[in-house]
Amino acid sequence: MSTRARGWLPWKIAAFCLAAATTGFVHAQMNTSTVAESGKLLVPDPERARVSSLGFGPVLADFYWIQVLGIVGAELGEVERHADLIADAIELVTALDPWVDHPYRFAAVWLTRDPDDVRRANALMRRAIAYHPRDWRNRFYLGYNHFFYLEENLRAADVLEPAVGMPGAPLYLGAFVTRLRAEGGSLETAELYLRELIRAAPDEYARAEYLKAYDEVETERRARFLDAARVEFWKRHGRDIRSPAELWEGPGRVLGKMPPPHPHFPGFRWELDPQSNEIVSSFFRTRYKLHIHETDAQRRARWRAQPDAQNDRQGEAEALDARPGEGSI
Predict the structure, then answer these.
(1) How far apart are CA 114 and CA 139, in angstroms?
(2) Given 3.40.1000, 1.10.238, 3.30.1490, 1.25.40, which CATH number is that of 26-149?
(3) Which of 3, 80, 253, 288 shows a CA-CA span of 20 to 30 A to 242?
(4) pLDDT along the chain (329 residues), means of 10
């Protein structure tokens, strides 16, 4: 062996020993007993774990991510009872390795027990957007949480709008954003947004979908005009209408003529929905709104009844640090 090679040998041995000691230290940070053995997963503080990982953060992240998958996979039906553990573990995983992908959306799927859980999931999704600004799915999950669980339709629209046109984003996303804005009372904003989508549509198929949505928005505008006329009819006559035709026909009419029930197609009429008693076009047979399944409507009602759900939702938690970038929201 040459003198030069012998000179490097002690350094190689020292480097090997340091690597072995570091690996042992990182391994010691892991709760390596299985979930079945311990009955729970011990999750360390994210910042402490990040500092003590000595550059092996992604290794620790993978370990805890696998454990979370095991917890959910072994659960037969009550995943919600693990919500706190899932949230703690995913916050740890994304702190150790913020460039991960699926764990963020995993949290959005499973953290739905109550509004506080949803807000923890939303904080994670904001971090996901910061690290993956061109992935439309992260904005979709965050926007969906704002709409579906927190009933913040305009906030959901603001989050989702930048995702329209991103690679892989579905065509219906633009129409969904429009419906969210209309549901929040911003029918004019929804109409302007749709006009831009129609103008910039990538092909005729996309343009046709947006044109259909535009027809719905215009019909809803006319229905709201009839709603205002219905209020005026009540003021004048002390009763509600028996049929929308009373608004423009007969001695008690308050309108000069009927607004067309569809922007293009003749032969349709305005009628009263037998369930909601709303004025609807016989073409669409429903108002322009987002429809919620009865089970989910009941969940929303329960959440509204909770004291925490009455707090100002504009103060949504910003507990997780998000890396600044083009994915700002």
Answers:
(1) 20
(2) 1.25.40
(3) 288
(4) 50 44 45 48 76 76 87 77 89 92 91 91 96 94 88 90 91 85 74 79 79 90 96 96 96 95 95 95 87 69 65 46 48
